[in-house]
Design goal:
The complex is a heterodimer of chains A (323) and B (507). Chain A has 323 residues and is mainly α. Chain A has 14 helices and 2 strands. Classes of the chains: A mainly alpha (323), B alpha/beta (507). Chains A and B meet through helix 8 and helix 9 of A and helix 2, helix 3 and helix 4 of B.
Chain lengths: 323, 507
């Protein structure tokens, strides 16, 4: 029973750790399906985390923090779109520029505004997204197996987790069942076809980047006001890139991408648990090696197991009409 | 008399320094098939791009059915009842046929309803016009003829009354082309208007009612098709008299240079593209490989040039097997043994577009001792060689430092052909020598190929232009689906017979 409880809590922390990855990967899905390689997910998320942390600290409301995070992330996304859609700049370079900008700007502003060494003040009460208890937890608590699963794995997460879980089928629906989704998928494959079908390529890509910005904003807010209780410098720690890797691993399809995120998150949760534990036959592994686990997993998966990942064909290419 | 279906007045368009259209006036009668001919770069595609809203004209106005319309984007053209079948299909390759037709005409924010309606309507159109295509097939799985039907269905589904077809027969067998022309005639009889852009004079004469000739961005003449002929049109296009068929005596084949036995080749997806091909090429003859593109010709050329591993069979050159198929050094060895190769896709394989001409002119021969200066490559010598080549092959402008991509198609091809012929090869492998090349340059290139033959060299010519094969080859092999399905001597060849073979119907 003890192992079962541990396993459940491992899974529950997998869910919690996967949220920013999932949000970010879905954000990347919009961008890349539309033909914009978004290496700037990390920067958008970091800027959003800072905005969430600051706004929540000042206003005392996590929801206002969320609004601020989404707004800042959308601004970043629009700058990215302005550079690489309107002005046909290099998508990777402009995305990377946003990443660098976010790292520097958030630290400087945090220091200037709050003077806590680059952090935002610790959040309490309504300034954070607190775990919610779903109905019937008490009623079901007596049921074996299902009771604990419901109480510890399904219930007890914060509002953003449930929001994200709802976003997954929604994104899938939008991408595959709506007019916008059809055009989105088309513009990432052959923007010329979209243009000659009488649809504006630029406007379509801008809308995709807006979706991307919103999702990254939620991811950032999750980091600063739900998972942690303040913004910390460089708190994204490569999650944006990990999300990008999950997107490739999931072949730009929503559900496989989410599963890839869960896998990475599971590795992350596992490394948290393995620290300091003596493994049979190996002994205690240095903590750094354990912490590297999710990243090593990423490299291995992308190198060996992903098979041939076929990116949207026009991804990475600014659209210009042929003469 | 009715107002013309389409009237263009004073259309002017610049692309940077290039004056692509010079105050073009054009009137297209309703219910007619109107041809537009001109060489590459004459401004035909730009003009049609303006009509379709893909380009915006600097000046000029457009009237549809007598009413002025403002066409700033393709949706304006579509709304005005103009549809276009582009030369390079505007299709999303990993979408189904249905999704491609729906794109831009979804009929609502959710797809389900529009999907059902489009399916019914497309089935009706397909029945009415014989445009059968599997609506649920992905574009990438369809052959080019079917892809073109999708493009046509797209235009029809949007209710096009004026249809523009840009080089529609480039990818079709002669029989498929004839079928397309029947369809065009049917539309005309239904009162639709068709604009046919092509560089094939045969087609213009066969189907159009009226033809407009463009040269250097301007319209030089409009003729009733019945009152003109090939020679006149060619002269109008080029601005001088041209020989449509280079004079050529009969061949005097000598020793066997190349023998291919049971050659099998697979493509990147492990699909067999050549399924046991055998033939021989002798010194002093041009052997033409005819066929619709995508039937194994490209793989054949690449295998012979040493660029593609072979999965079976063998290649004998001057009686010896070429070493180690698939060895990356083989292309180099082939060159060293006087096999020259003018690839089909010159932008991808024949040259580096971003290099200056003199670098393109030494590609593959860059380690010639003659070009070296100690351990270094001598730019001066490379430039000098290119200069000489440009003189011999009439490349314009004769500027070795100009970027390769800045030359016109014909001049690019002359550089590539010059580079290969200059080495006096015993075997020349040449693919699509005149694709994207203007008529004047075609004549020049054809003369050079015949000249090479007359010097006793072997030439293997792959071309999807049947006219070209008929004009040059001494023997014609027809390929279909990776097999040689027939061989005819040039004297006995006719278009119809070869066309049937190309379609795999009969030998």
């Amino acid at each position: 029973m003890e192992e079962f409880a541990q396993f459940l809590s491992l899974l529950a922390s997998t869910v919690r750790l996967s949220m920013p990855l999932i949000l970010c990967a879905l954000a990347g899905l919009f961008a890349e399906r539309a033909g914009v390689v978004d290496i700037g997910l990390e920067g958008k998320m970091l800027a959003a985390a800072f905005a969430a942390g600051s706004a929540a600290a000042v206003s005392g409301s996590a929801w206002l923090g969320l609004v601020a995070a989404v707004a800042v992330s959308v601004v970043f996304a629009l700058i990215h779109a302005f550079a690489c859609v309107t002005h046909k700049g290099n998508q990777v370079v402009s995305g990377m520029a946003l990443n660098v900008l976010a790292v520097g700007l958030t630290a400087v502003l945090a220091f200037a505004w709050f003077r806590e060494g680059g952090q935002t003040p610790a959040l309490q009460g309504a300034a954070r997204f607190a775990p919610l208890e779903l109905p019937f937890v008490q009623t079901l608590s007596g049921v074996p197996v299902l009771g604990p699963i419901y109480a510890r794995l399904i219930s007890g997460h914060n509002a953003l987790v449930y929001l994200t879980l709802a976003a997954i089928p929604l994104v899938s629906f939008v991408v595959f069942r709506t007019r916008f989704g059809l055009r989105l998928r088309a513009v990432g494959e052959n923007p010329h076809a979209v243009d000659t079908a009488g649809i504006s390529v630029a406007w379509l890509r801008y809308r995709a980047m807006l979706c991307c910005g919103v999702l990254c904003g939620v991811a950032g807010s999750y980091l600063a006001t739900a998972m942690a209780s303040a913004f910390q410098r460089e708190m994204t720690a490569g999650k944006g890139f990990l999300a990008l890797a999950a997107l490739i691993f999931g072949k730009w399809m929503p559900v496989p991408t989410v599963l890839a995120c869960l896998l990475f998150a599971f590795a992350d949760a596992l490394q948290g648990r393995l620290q300091g534990v003596a493994l049979p036959g190996i002994g205690v592994v240095p903590v750094q090696a354990i912490q590297a686990l999710p990243y090593i997993l990423t490299v291995l998966l992308l190198a060996g197991f992903v098979g041939k990942a076929v990116a949207p064909k026009a991804s990475g290419v600014p659209y210009a009409k042929e003469k | 008399m009715d107002a013309p279906a389409l009237r263009l007045t004073g259309i002017d368009k610049h692309f940077g320094p290039v004056h692509a259209n010079r105050s073009v006036d054009l009137s297209v009668a309703k219910g007619s098939i109107h041809g537009i001919v001109g060489e590459n770069g004459a401004g035909k595609s730009t003009l049609m791009g303006v009509v379709y809203g893909y380009h915006t004209a600097d000046q000029g106005s457009i009237e549809v059915d007598g009413k002025p319309v403002r066409i700033a984007a393709p949706q304006d053209a579509i709304a005005a009842g103009i549809g276009m079948v582009h030369q390079h299909f505007m299709l999303v390759e990993n979408f189904t046929v249905l999704e491609n037709v729906l794109l831009g005409a979804e009929g609502g924010a959710l797809l389900a309803k529009g999907r059902a309606r489009a399916r019914a309507e497309l089935e009706r159109l397909a029945r009415e016009y014989g445009l059968s295509v599997d609506l649920d097939a992905k574009i990438e799985d369809l052959h080019v003829g079917a892809q073109q039907r999708v493009e046509i269905l797209k235009a029809l589904y949007r209710g096009a009354r004026i249809l523009i077809l840009d080089e529609p027969t480039a990818v079709l067998t002669p029989q498929e082309a004839d079928k397309l022309f029947e369809l065009l005639a049917l539309w005309r009889d239904q009162g639709r208007t068709v604009l046919l852009i092509t560089h094939k004079l045969r087609e213009i004469l066969a189907v159009t009612d009226r033809v407009t000739v463009m040269r250097q961005g301007a319209i030089v003449a409009t003729r009733e098709t019945a009152a003109t002929n090939r020679e006149e049109l060619a002269e109008l296009m080029v601005g001088r008299r041209v020989a449509l068929r280079v004079p050529k005596g009969s061949a005097a084949p000598g020793a066997e240079i190349l023998r291919v036995e049971n050659l099998v080749c697979a493509d990147g997806r492990k699909t067999e593209r050549l399924r046991g091909v055998s033939f021989a090429v002798r010194a002093g003859e041009i052997v033409g490989i005819a066929g619709v593109s995508g039937n194994g010709q490209s793989e054949l050329l690449e295998a012979l040039a040493g660029l593609r591993p072979i999965a079976g069979g063998r290649i004998l050159y001057k009686g010896e097997a070429l070493p180690a198929p698939g060895d990356p050094a083989r292309a180099k060895q082939a060159r060293a043994r006087a096999i020259a190769h003018v690839p089909e896709d010159r932008h991808r394989m024949g040259m580096v577009v971003a290099f200056p001409a003199y670098e393109t002119a030494i590609l593959g021969y860059h380690d010639d001792a003659e070009l070296a200066e100690g351990p270094l490559l001598s730019e001066a010598r490379a430039t000098a060689r290119c200069d000489k080549l440009m003189g011999q092959f009439d490349v314009r402008p004769a500027d070795p430092r100009l970027k390769s991509g800045k030359f016109s198609g014909g001049n690019q091809q002359k550089i590539v052909l010059g580079r290969e012929i200059d080495r006096d090869p015993d075997l020349l492998l040449v693919g699509q020598p005149t694709r994207g090349v203007d008529i004047g340059a075609i004549e020049f290139i054809h003369r050079r190929l015949v000249e090479l033959r007359d010097r006793g060299k072997a030439v293997l010519l792959v071309s999807c232009e049947l006219d070209e094969i008929l004009a040059l080859a001494d023997r014609i092999l027809t390929v279909c689906d990776g097999r040689i399905v027939g061989e005819v001597a040039a004297a006995e060849a006719d278009e119809r017979r070869i066309g049937l073979m190309m379609a795999g119907i009969a030998a």
